[in-house]
Design brief:
Blueprint (H helix, E strand, L loop, with lengths): L1 H17 L1 H29 L3 H23 L1 H25 L13 H30 L1 H6 L6 H44 L9 H9 L1 H4 L5 E7 L2 H8 L1 H19 L3 E5 L4 E6 L5 H14 L1 E4 L2 E4 L2 E7 L8 H17 L5 E5 L3
Parallel strand pairs: 6-7
Antiparallel strand pairs: 1-3, 1-6, 2-3, 4-5
Helix pairs in contact: 2-3, 3-4, 4-5, 5-7, 10-11, 11-12
Length: 360
């Protein structure tokens, strides 16, 4: 059970990471939960140890983080507002830590966390900007006399000299890790796209394949495809073409006919390779499928192949079924009837089309 559970969890994570919007929402929510929870715990510690003003400051930051979480879950403009608010909140918090230093100069150490969270939440460009603003603040307050005069806590000279360099090192490491994560994330997304393309497209014709169609039938709500008609097209006497001219030339015939069908469709339907020498078309709504199929027959018949100085023309048999109400989500019923019509066209002598309406 455990290996299966681990595999299932890994697959879910891969799916989550490959969806950029969902992944951003997930990681932002996790950061707000971690920071909000940590600030709440620190508020309790501050209360117990008698750190009055710091208690209220960290408690306010905890509440702000959970407010940001709520806005993030609302998505859209609310999520964008959450990120702007968080940038302001975290800048104010760390400036407070730097200036007041309580308790005992410890709170300023939390600023070393900013590069990691900033780069993760705001990505490289804006996260780096935010991190460098805090670095500039550290330089101003710790290295510049005017800034030192504003400090409400007396840091040691050694600490003020070294801490900005420590913060810069934390930023460099966070930048490297985020850049590496970004590259790996983009590579994963690209691999996912390639994987989906290979899954859903036929290797020979580069058109959709049968697995793509089965995916639509299995998850109609995901693809939201309600065809107005379905046609199954079969290349007549294809076995004779293979026997006479060889399988490589047979592949050329399939490729060229697939291109001719797709060009004639011109976006009016989705084409997939249904079988060896069969294609299937899902016609979109409000399409005169019969007229399109007639143009496909003419386009294929007009195409001349030349193999070994011999000309070859091909013909198609087509089974077409339309919907009485303009569209349907019962794709399987359409495919079944189109297949029946295709066999009727072959029995009639090939090079023809049999058409009917669903339910006739």
């Amino acid at each position: 059970m455990k290996p299966f559970a681990n595999t299932n969890f890994r697959n879910k994570m891969v799916h989550l990471i490959s969806d950029e919007k969902r992944w951003t929402l997930f990681q932002n929510a996790c950061v707000f939960i971690v920071l909000g929870s940590t600030a709440a715990i620190m508020s309790l510690v501050n209360f117990i140890t008698g750190q009055g003003s710091l208690t209220w400051f960290t408690l306010g930051f905890s509440a702000a983080c959970f407010l940001n979480l709520l806005l993030t879950l609302l998505k859209g403009n609310a999520a964008k507002s959450a990120m702007i608010l968080f940038a302001v909140e975290i800048t104010v918090l760390f400036l407070y830590f730097i200036i007041f230093g309580i308790p005992d100069g410890f709170s300023v150490i939390w600023t070393a966390m900013l590069p990691s969270f900033g780069l993760l939440l705001f990505e490289i460009r804006y996260g780096s900007t935010l991190s460098l603003i805090i670095f500039a603040a550290l330089i101003f307050f710790f290295w510049v006399p005017l800034g030192q005069s504003l400090l409400q806590y007396e840091y040691s000279q050694t600490f003020m000299m070294r801490f900005p360099l420590f913060y810069l090192a934390c930023f460099a490491v966070a930048y490297l890790l985020e850049r590496t994560r970004e590259v790996a994330h983009n590579a994963l997304r690209e691999s996912q796209k390639n994987y989906e393309y290979l899954c859903y497209h036929d290797a020979l014709t580069k058109k959709y394949n049968r697995f793509w169609l089965q995916s639509i039938i299995a998850e109609p709500e995901k693809y939201q495809i309600k065809p107005a008609a379905v046609a199954i097209l079969d290349i007549d006497n294809f076995k004779l073409i293979n026997d006479s001219f060889g399988h490589p030339n047979g592949d050329i015939v399939i490729q060229d006919i697939g291109d001719a069908i797709n060009n004639t469709l011109n976006g009016s339907g989705d084409l997939c390779r249904w079988g060896g020498d069969e294609f299937l078309i899902l016609f979109h709504t409000d399409i005169d499928a019969y007229a399109v199929c007639r143009r496909i027959v003419d386009a294929v018949h007009a195409h001349i192949f030349n193999f070994d100085n011999k000309e070859l023309r091909t013909t198609l048999s087509i089974g077409l079924v339309t919907t009485p109400h303009g569209s349907t989500d019962d794709i399987e019923a359409l495919i079944h009837q189109a297949d029946v019509n295709l066999y009727a066209a072959k029995d009639k002598g090939r090079n023809c089309m049999i058409s009917s309406s669903l339910g006739e």
